[in-house]
Amino acid sequence: MTFWSYLQPTHDAPSPATYADALRRLHAAMRRVELQAPHFTERVTAAADALTDRHRTPTLDDDRSLLLSSLRGGCDALLDRGGPDQLLHGEPHPGNVLHTAN
Question: Sign of torsion, CA 74 79 81 84?
């Protein structure tokens, strides 16, 4: 069961500018959504926990410090911006986009 409407996909990928505009419009619309959702810091904490657990991530020994530093630095940078929280489209990537004529 789905609540989505079917749209015939196209095989033409949007330009980067078109893709960026679509994300801008989506996030603008999501500012008006009133929904309780987990804060992004919960996912950051879960990722940091995995990075610090050598049994869960044994092959990361050489990169563990860099990844943990980057993760925490990015989180701190977002928190330091001081802007209001809002829902965002998660993990935008080409596999998460449906190209349609509309």
Answer: positive
